[in-house]
């Protein structure tokens, strides 16, 4: 079971206190600037670039040099604001797999079938993030999540995690739906809330 704190483009208010008190089993995906400060937890990147010469981006090989083992790929916000295409996300995921970095490939209802076929047999974790649940406070129902997990598990052996308005109120139900983990965005900036969610996640590996 994995639990990812996706800080997106900001940092918690008191980041030092946060890093002292946050549950060590949580994978933290901070902005690139803060990856060196993640010492007690495992760090993940939020994206990477296929090019070595784009201002503001970070090439995937640099993630390896930084010692990272995880990278979120194709998040809805990357698709929406940076026009990241599915082909690019797949290219990035394939490049990361070659470097032994596990891509957390974000999927939604439109892409899931193609994503399953792409990820099948590769060390890629699928992160099901319905667009209407990201940042809205309205997570997908556990019944729908269960249905999605069953579909994925019937077609491939990849891990499948859920993201989209996860909170300490719904985490237990979402976990019971059979997911291999959760991604928490907005609420992960509060260490008390993410620690509460960690308490509900039964087994970490
Ligand atoms: P949210 O974000 O928890 O704020 O909905 C999840 C995500 O975008 O990964």
CATH topology: TIM Barrel
What's the level 1 CATH class?
Alpha Beta
The description of the largest β-sheet is: 8 strands, parallel, barrel
Helix count? 8
Shape: globular
Q: Whole-Å distance between the termini?
A: 6 Å
- Give me the CATH superfamily: Aldolase class I
**Computed CA radius of gyration, to the nearest angstrom:** 16 Å
Low-confidence stretches: none
Largest sheet, spatial ordering of strands: 1-2-3-4-5-6-7-8
Ligand identities:
2-phosphoglycolic acid
Strand content: 15-25%
Q: Topology as H/E string? A: EHEEHEHHEHEHEHEH
The tally of beta strands, per DSSP, is: 8
Can you give a write-up of this model?
The protein is α/β, with parallel strands linked by helices and 205 residues long. The chain has 8 helices and 8 strands; from the N terminus they run βαββαβααβαβαβαβα. It has a single domain, classed as Aldolase class I (TIM Barrel), CATH 3.20.20.70. Strands 1-2-3-4-5-6-7-8 form an 8-stranded parallel β-barrel. α2 links the parallel β3 (42-45) and β4. The mean pLDDT is 97. The structure holds 2-phosphoglycolic acid. 2-phosphoglycolic acid binds next to β8.
